[in-house]
């Protein structure tokens, strides 16, 4: 998972004033915050033939390379950083003015451009004109175990347990899960102009019905 971690001070307090023990314990004081976030708005990570086949229309032209954070994405993340600054000031964790003290804020980002730039944009919104370093693994060409524990072999998942968990959340089967969301798929077909797409027209030539869920059935591998 791509993420940014922003721990303040050194300790995350895992309970809140609404804790079952709040009445008998001294009033709790928030000492630190950890924020886990995905990257901001990015361009698609790849351009596939399927993307061309599902719509007769041209896809938007992105102002950045595939997978990179967009200017708008960076702008929105900066707004998020500004909001979090206000929240942390209100909670007494950051001063209202000036830069955070050394060691008070840490930002850790995955190696991809979009995650590194997201960290930089967040820092710019959180503390404008302050030299907050975005920490990233030195080797940006290899997966970071912190964010990619499966890919790097740090841990493994049991396939049978994972499959059971997914099917349980899906209501028993992927087909049922898809079937309960036909309204959303119809809207997606409308946005894509799917009935006029090459994929749909080719299915009709073969006397096959045309819908996204029939042309591209969901499956669990």
TrEMBL record:
The keyword 4Fe-4S does not apply. SUPFAM superfamilies: Phosphoglycerate mutase-like. Keywords: Signal. Residues 1-22 form the signal peptide. The keyword Signal applies. This is Histidine-type phosphatase.
């Amino acid at each position: 998972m791509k993420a940014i971690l922003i721990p303040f001070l050194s300790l995350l307090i895992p309970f809140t004033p609404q804790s079952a023990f709040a009445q008998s314990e001294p009033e709790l004081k928030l000492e630190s915050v950890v924020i886990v976030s995905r990257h901001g708005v990015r361009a698609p990570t790849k351009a596939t033939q399927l993307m061309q086949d599902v719509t007769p229309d041209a896809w938007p032209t992105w102002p950045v390379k595939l997978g990179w954070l967009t200017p708008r994405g960076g702008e929105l993340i900066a707004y998020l950083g500004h909001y979090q600054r206000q929240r942390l000031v209100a909670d007494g964790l950051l001063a209202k003015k000036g830069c955070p003290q050394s060691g008070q804020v840490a930002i850790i980002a995955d190696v991809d451009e979009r995650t590194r730039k997201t960290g930089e944009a967040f820092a710019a919104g959180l503390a404008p004109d302050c030299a907050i370093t975005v920490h990233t693994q030195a080797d940006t060409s290899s997966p970071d175990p912190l964010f990619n524990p499966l890919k790097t072999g740090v841990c493994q998942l049991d396939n049978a347990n994972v499959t059971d968990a997914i099917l349980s959340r899906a209501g028993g089967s992927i087909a049922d899960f898809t079937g309960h969301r036909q309204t959303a798929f119809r809207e997606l077909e409308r946005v894509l102009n799917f009935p006029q797409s090459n994929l749909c027209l080719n299915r009709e030539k073969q006397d096959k019905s045309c819908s996204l869920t029939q042309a591209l059935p969901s499956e669990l591998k």
